[in-house]
Amino acid sequence: MNKRLKTLLIKTKRQVFSEMVGNNPSLFHGEGYDFSELREYRIGDDIRKIDWTITAKLQKPYVKLFHEERELSIVAACMMGGSLFFGTKRIKQEVVTEVAAIVGYSAVKNSDLFTGAVVSEKVENIERPTKRIFGVNRFIEKVDSFNLLGKQTDYQDGLQQLFSRIKRRSLIFLIGDFLAPVDISLLSRKHEVIAVIVRDRFEEQPLPLGDVHLVDPETGATINTNFGKGSVAKYKKLIIENEQALYRHLNKHRIRFIKIYTDEDPFGKLVKLFGKGV
């Protein structure tokens, strides 16, 4: 594991395990929990189940009891194509890696099952469900070291394979830049899907660069061209059209989404998505 990745994981662990305290025990909570009643705290009870409001009123610790507690199945599916090999602050692949780490550590902290998947034109890798930090770290290393060059951004077959391989109903974080059209409707029929859109601001608000030498990270093709004001205007029009089509698709299928730029803190944005304060 390289030094940069080690630093990233240390920071992410600290955010997930140290900064989420009090009323925020995890990034997400088990929606399968069915509240039953309150009873006085007993030695050995999980302190995360203490009802602090009732405890303060009665001056004795009380815990919440639940009918049939069911663990969540959390999936971080990283859509890895050549377009992620870009960034002005840091490349998008690094942000995808960090988001996947936050999701994985949050699942472990909440004692939920975590599954990591790398998707391109096919499912490149899918890890066995785990509740251990070691399993999360193993997956994160694969995402961080994944060779993007030459990988196409046509994810449809890969997402179809992912649908077939995830048997249990899950909360799926679909992480990528979503620059290419993608149909998530099949996944959303069976699972709860959250789209995490990773972008660089320059992709949406480019500046005229004049004469440039461009390389397509998907095909390796190169071109010498002039990226002036006219080119910028045409490009922005295409980006806007792509965004409108993407948002229509997500809203139609009731898929929650969030956009994270390469110069932003992914942890803070994800916390806001779930309506929590740190």
Q: Which spans of ≥5 residues are poorly predicted at pLDDT below 50? A: none
Q: Give me the Rg, rounded.
A: 21 Å
> What oligomeric arrangement do these chains adopt?
single chain
| Secondary structure category | alpha/beta
Quick check: average pLDDT?
Answer: 87
By DSSP, the count of extended strands is 10
Assign an overall shape. Answer: elongated
Instruction: Supply the CATH architecture of the largest domain.
Output: 3-Layer(aba) Sandwich
At the fourth CATH level, what is the homologous superfamily of the largest domain?
Answer: von Willebrand factor, type A domain
H/I helix tally: 9
Biggest sheet character: 6 strands, mixed
Q: How many domains in all?
A: 2
What spatial order of strands do you see in the largest sheet?
Answer: 5-4-3-6-7-10
H-E string: HEHEEHEEHHEHEHEEHEH
Euclidean distance between termini CA atoms: 29 Å
Find the CATH topology of the largest domain. Answer: Rossmann fold
In the CATH scheme, the class of the largest domain would be Alpha Beta
Strand content: 15-25%
